[in-house]
Amino acid sequence: MVEPVPSSAAEDEPERSAVEEDAGTGGSGHRARRQPKKQRSFWVELPILIVVALVLAFVFQQFFARVYTIPSASMESTLHGCTGCYGDKVLVDKITYDFSTPGPGDVVVFKGPDPWVAGEAPVERSSNPVVRFFQNVGAVFGLAPPDERDFVKRIIAVGGQTVQCCDAQNRVIVDGKSLNEPYIHWVDPNNPRQEPFSPVKVPEGTLWVMGDNRNDSMDSRYQGNGGVNGVVPVANVIGKARFIVLPPGRWGGVSDTNPQENAQPAVLGLSAPGWQQGVPLGFGLVAAWPTLALSRRFGTGVRRAVKRKR
After folding, report:
1. Is 201 a catalytic residue?
2. Cα(268)–Cα(176) distance, rounded to whole angstroms?
3. Which letter does DSSP use for residue 243 in this model?
4. From the candidates 74, 178, 217, 220, which is the catalytic residue?
5. Residue 74 a catalytic site member
6. Using CA atoms, how far apart are residues 15 and 23, in angstroms rounded to an integer?
């Protein structure tokens, strides 16, 4: 009978384990600690952080929201853009119209249609390539005027509606109703008058826009010589102005009062104070008595003349 040959594996195992333990601990009997990775210096990480921040900001402004500088006074006093003052910087929501359509009262930023920009001079950029680079970067982040000729106005009427000016109280009329526009800014508060214009049927897919500074705004009334040439395609709308982010003293939301919400049936013609409107009625009443007396005398005289001839 063959005797089983004893295996030496069990005997060799302790030795192998001991060798592995010694190798892992360096023979000291303790497990070696991993050396921590050497951290990059602050000056190495700083440019990386700046680049990442700029990329994230660029993506955010391209697809979600963007800061725009208001370059003119056409939206006073809702948005400051007066000559010589620190113009407002406005955060424009670029995704809201992916789920809704622009409506009356919305303050929108849009790319100027061809009739609007035909006579506009492009934004000047420095001939110095370094300065021009920083100007372009500033335009992306709302710190300088953008290259494209963009505008900011308030929507007054949408496609299919008819707009005209003015009613007896110098108000804009849409579909036969006088608008309620509490946001209007008058250059001369003592003379709150705006230029009249003939009825315009706004084509479908377009918008009729006007500035809140009604006496100092080149808008749908004048661009492209007015009329249907002054409308703005909905496709040109970049987004809706939501918040004033700079300067700090102007922080707040941008009003989007719908002027058509409380519109009243329009009364056309010249208006007059109440006491003047009562003058014709009073004059009629006063003049009625002598007219009636004269008609009676005239009738009596005619009857007497007829009797004499008989």
Report:
1. no
2. 10
3. E
4. 74
5. yes
6. 12
Bridge partners for 90 per DSSP: 68, 244
At 79, the amino acid letter reads: L
The tokens of 86 are what?
Answer: 């620190």
Q: Collapse the DSSP code of 240 into the 3-class scheme (helix H, G, I; strand E, B; otherwise coil) and give the result.
A: strand
How many angstroms from the chain centroid is the CA of residue 72?
A: 14
pTM above 0.70, yes or no: no
Residue 274 and residue 112 in contact, taking contact as beta carbons nearer than 8 Å: no
**305 exposed, middle or buried (CB, 10 Å; 0-12, 13-18, 19+)?**
exposed
Q: How far apart are CA 40 and CA 28, in angstroms?
A: 32
Distance CA 88, CA 80 (A): 5
- Name residue 91's beta-bridge partners: 67, 243
Quick one: tokens of 301? Answer: 């005289």
Q: Which position has the higher pLDDT, 14 or 71?
A: 71
In this predicted structure, the answer to whether residue 96 has a pLDDT above a threshold of 90 is yes
The catalytic position among 89, 94, 153, 240 is 153
